[in-house]
Amino acid sequence: MNPIIIEHDHTDFSAHVLSNNVELIGHSTLAPAGENVPGGLGEIDVVNNYAYVAVFNHGFAIVDLSNPAEPILVSLTDTPTPPGNPLGKYTADLKVDRTGDWVFLAMELSEYPGVLIYDARDKAAPKLAGFWPEPGLLLGCHMVEYAVINEQEYLFCAPLDNAIYVGLLLPEAGGVREVVQVARFVPTTEKFVNQQVARFQEDQVGWAADQVSGHQDMTYQLDPITLAPTLFVSFWNLGMRIVDVSNPALPLEIGSWAGEDSDLFHGALHTTVAFLSDEGKRIIATIPEGANPPALFVLDATDLDNPKTLSAWTALPDFKGEHGTFSLHNFQILDGTVYIAMGHGGLMALDISTPELQASPNPVASYLPHEPRPDGEPYQGYYWDSVLWNGYWLTADGSGGFYVLHKLGDPAGDVQFTSFA
User: Fold this and answer.
1) How many CA atoms lie within 13 A of 391 on its CB side?
2) What is the mean pLDDT of residues 181-209?
3) Is 255 exposed, middle or buried (CB count within 10 Å of its CB: 0-12, 13-18, 19+)?
């Protein structure tokens, strides 16, 4: 089930045709016939029968999934950039509200760093409807999350510093949406301070690099046990932080893990998701980006004060310097299965549904998307996101396009079999 083959010709399609327990249902280049999409394809969010796809250096696409076998590009929206702008425009992340009518673009390293808000009630012609500039103080927003808490709408932004910005999203007024910042969260617990002191004593030179968290991501979900609104934040070299946002204006860190009990932890945490096991435990999966080796850490965090590492799974024991190319990235968890995008390694599904599998994750499916570029040129695919929708598995790549897949055994067409993130 392992799709990763080291030391191959990345432009040779015969080395990229691989499918284990996964079938291709539909595909779209998300571009006019014979043309390439104008940028790489990244984050995917789905509401009802529409997929919203971030397009790097451009904006975002809306795709009609009414017929999964024939995904149709509805619109491709370009974000504003003044002519000659040296920064360009990097759509680092994308989220959509629960109606599918409002799209939130996290802009990083861009002319307009922060969060752009689009009115997508007309799917064929989304309109710019707002801008949240506050998180742009340090190169913009690397990730954005959307949540409805206490019947109010909020946006969470993670920039490149150690903070999470919290913004109250105001109702539409004349076609405009505004955001009022209500909090800025940074880790300040005694455990965090003690970790930093210990790190400084261990390495006074390398310690400074750990003080900027880097490309942290976050997952908003209801806590699997308490059902409290929670952010599971991957704070890069600062480890994983669990933040209660029941009161969004007063975020409260309630748990953390920074590899205290794992020799394979080397920082660079990127994505974290929690789920409730059949045994009633809070199980957390968290992964780094580009670490050597890239590992999926499975934790028992039932005791928030003392999360325990159950396993550290790696696709290969030795990545021979290509760990960044085959880096773990985004993933979802449904029914105890981790559906993960592994960069150039394609997609993989890992079963961690039982205590035995949490201690030793079992690969149960893999797929290496390999559709050719519309212009016929060779390329090296890199798969950024992994989303479950109605029993189908969605991913995308800037050169090969947008894919609708199906893992055999999953309930294709079941609207309940959909990931929340």
Assistant:
1) 12
2) 77
3) buried
